[in-house]
Amino acid sequence: MSVRFPSVAGMFYPAGEKDCREQVEKCLESVPPIEREGAVRGGVVPHAGWSYSGPTAGRVFAALSAEDPPETIVLFGAVHRWGVRGASMYGSGSWRTPLGDLSIDEELAQEVLRSAGGAILDNPDAHVGEHSIEVQLPFVAHLFPSARILPISVPPSPHAHKVGAQVASAARVLGRRTLAIGTSDLTHYGPRYGLAPVGVGDQTLEWVRKNDARLLDLTVQMRAADVVEEAREHQNACGAGAIAASIAYAAQLGATRGIVLHHTTSHDVMPMGPPTDMVGYAAIVFM
Asked: Averaged over 175-187, what is the pLDDT?
């Protein structure tokens, strides 16, 4: 059985079991309750190192943990590697985390492959060295140790939202009790990222927040088909395909709206002098 070993443990999050569990618990503690208007069907989390984005991601996982435990968690990941041209699933085996191994829902994977008609590939190589899904899995192992997972990398193609709908349909065929989590950071601003239309300084924070808000507004309205084009035009998400897929999946499960639980930037979290280079992070749930 294939095992996908961690790529960024010890860098993005702790590699040891004790330190990793303590850090997960720290990210989950003191999370304010949300006003519920129905069940939470999924969400979107950032995927930076936990020192920057862990507490933001923790808000989504805390909200999900209040629901009935899922049988399977589908994770739609951003793509940071060249050559991943289509939705790519890790369809068998398990993923190792410092908190234990998480098994792939192989039956769901096979149903996805059967029903998607080639639109989703079983391509484990697409996940080599990719961190966007990996950094979420210790949260999953801590909160849902008996759940299986289905990791799918989703490039920002115009059809990304259809990936979410196809996977949700496959889960429905099998009667799976599922949740869907998409991973994306938001605007990458500054000379380091090649995006600095208002230069550097205090004015950049307001610009980044407004640029992020454009995409967040589409996300909470669950306009899955519009997310990828918005990100292409305004460079306000690195995982637009994952966001689009997670919206469409949650919609298939009955979600009708999104809620932004938290929105911040790396500069707000850890300022290092005047604002220059920064990345936006948000926690979103679908109800």
From this structure: 97
